[in-house]
Amino acid sequence: MDQNERRPENKVTIDRDAQINVVVNRSGEDDNAIDLGRVFHNMKVKRRVFAWVLVLCLVLGICAPLLLYQFNKPMLTVSSVVTLKYEVPMVDVDDDLIPLADYTGSDEPVIVWQPVEDLTAPDGSELDLNAIASSYVLQQALNALDLSQSITLSALRRNISIEKVLSEKSRQAQELTSKMAEDKSSEAYEQLQAMELEYDNRFVVRLSNGFRDEDSKVKVEITDAELNALLDRILSAYNDYLVETYANMKLPNNLVAEIKTDELDLLESLDIFRTASDELYNYCDSQRDSVKAYRSSRDGRNLENWMTAVRTNREVSIDNLYSYVYTNSIVKNPSEMLTTYENRQRENERSKQEVNDKIEADVKTKTENYKKPTVIVSMQESGSIKSTQKTPDSFNELILRLAKNYGKIVELEITADDLSSKIASLKKLSGSSISQENVDKASSELENAKVAFNSLYDGILEHMEEVTESAFYRIYASHTVPQGKLDNYLVANLKKMLIGAAVGIVVACGLWFLAALAPEFRRNRKDDEDEKKPDRKGIADGKEAAEA
Cys-Cys link to 159, which of 32, 83, 208, 460 (CB 3.0-4.6 A)? Predict the structure, then answer.
């Protein structure tokens, strides 16, 4: 007995070669067997207790996600759809409208105003959406709000996200090409990589709650109402930024107001009059149709009425006076005017020579390089190769440049004839006396024309200021009411609650089975201990026999 190793009673030791056999309702005795019949019987006995354990585990599995949700509640994110509502300048090139920024021709483009259909800026360039998160826009938005928490511009900028909206055509093309790429088509993959996406004239702006600086681990959270108001103010400030940046309503300088009639001769003053009148009329004519149609609340006039007034003033006051002065050779100082016109004539001849040199160079290029200004272009379509004739773009640009230069030559020729006529008229006046009465009369008419033109200029200036302050003109980008709402905590955690309930049921059933299995291990351990106990009676009989 002293040589036997004593083992801890609270441990079940299994020899290396020992086995545990699982049997069901076995009648024989097997020390290493677990009777599943007794296990299920034990489970049946403990079913009332573990029914409550099951309920407890089920409740814990359902409540655990709700408790975690309360301690780690997600931040609200609000979103708003911004729609661009202005007109953009387009250029008509071969009956095809292209943005002004993409126009590369050399001649003066014909501007056509069209409602914006993509993310084009009001000046025809690409719209920079990053300006929404610029310091200027964000500071303007924060200045108009009184928030419960202080937010820095950097923290606010990190919580803003912008999502562009693909046009229907680009979206369908991208989906089709993506499906072809999934079929391992190398050609489709190359098309997908080179595809130039087109976007709609709207985009989505999102603002998330929970503002934190880079050097801080604490998030600053504002109320849901403040978050909605903040996004609304940011988009309103962005609209104001667009108006201030692209609303070019500045009138040309009033050259007539700067005319010094006592220093300039009559014809010189009238030349300035005609130039100022043309610039003012062209400025009004270059405005969009919506701006021209705006009717003032003060006098009921629109820009087209003012254009009619400018044209009438030009014909009645300026052109008639110019014709009267020119026909009657009314000049204050003929010698000075003669010198001025001779200088202008020499400058005109120099300009005409430069344009003629350009025309000769272009004609030479056309003769040497474009004897047959067409090329054959082959393209594959529906499995077949088709060929077509096409004029090179460089040849088209050359023809446009020639047409523009020929137009300049015509204008310079008209100016040369006018200067020659004036010079000849002034030479006839040399040595002759000029009627002072005619000079005074023309000067008086000139002053009246100056007053009338200044009145027109001031009226158009007030009208354009009213246009720029009107509601219809100041809406470059309209946005919907910011929307965003967190789901109910039960709905938000429904999936986690179901998973927790399933885990609770599994844990409860596992504990139930282990509790019913434990008596089997205890029974086997008790049998092992009984076998290893020494036979006290046998030892005593042995001693008595030895003594006898």
Answer: 208
